[in-house]
Hints:
Strand content: 5-15%
Distance between the termini: 8 Å
Largest sheet: 4 strands, parallel
Number of strands: 4
Helix content: 40-55%
CATH architecture: 3-Layer(aba) Sandwich
Bound molecules: 5-hydroxymethyluridine-2'-deoxy-5'-monophosphate
CATH topology: Rossmann fold
Radius of gyration: 14 Å
Structural class: alpha/beta
CATH class: Alpha Beta
Number of helices: 6
Shape: globular
Oligomer: single chain
Number of domains: 1
Amino acid sequence: MKIYFCGSIRGGRCDAELYGRIIEQLQAYGPVLTEHVGFKDPILKDIEGDDVAIHTQDMAWLEESDVVVAEVTQPSLGVGYEIGRAVAWKKRILCLYRPTEGKGLSAMIRGAHDCKNFIVKDYQEAEVPGILKEFLGSS
Ligand SMILES: O=c1[nH]c(=O)n([C@H]2C[C@H](O)[C@@H](COP(=O)(O)O)O2)cc1CO
C-alpha cells in the first residue's frame, strides 16, 4: 500500500518532528512516498528543487498512492491543495488534527468528513497508533 503523507512545509515547520514520528509509524503499513515532509530542515533544503519539478513529482506520487494521510493542524496551502486533488482522484483520505484553543480546522476539511473515504480525526499524539490501525488496517 503506497502512502502519500501531507504536512506543512512553507506553511510553517513547527510540527516537522511530529510528522517524522507519524511517517515512521506509517512505514509499517507501506512505503511513504513523501517521507521528506518529515525530514529536518537542512535535509529538506537539499532535496528542494525548482517549484515546477516539486509540483510535478508530488502530483505523480499522489496519483500513484493508494491512501493519503494528512496532518492538518498547521495550516498549509500546499496540504489543502493536495487534499483537494486527492478527493478529485477518489483517494481514501485521513486528516489528523490536534485541537488548539482559539483555532479551528477549516470547514473545507472538517466539512468533507463522510465516515468512509474522507475521515477527519481530532487526536492527541498518543492516539496515532490506534487511529492508523483503524484506517490502514481496513485498506
Ligand atoms: O518543497 C516542497 N516539497 C513538497 O513536497 N511540498 C508538498 C508536500 C507537502 O505535503 C506540501 C506542503 O505545502 P506548503 O509548502 O504549502 O506548506 O506540499 C511542498 C514543498 C514546498 O512548498
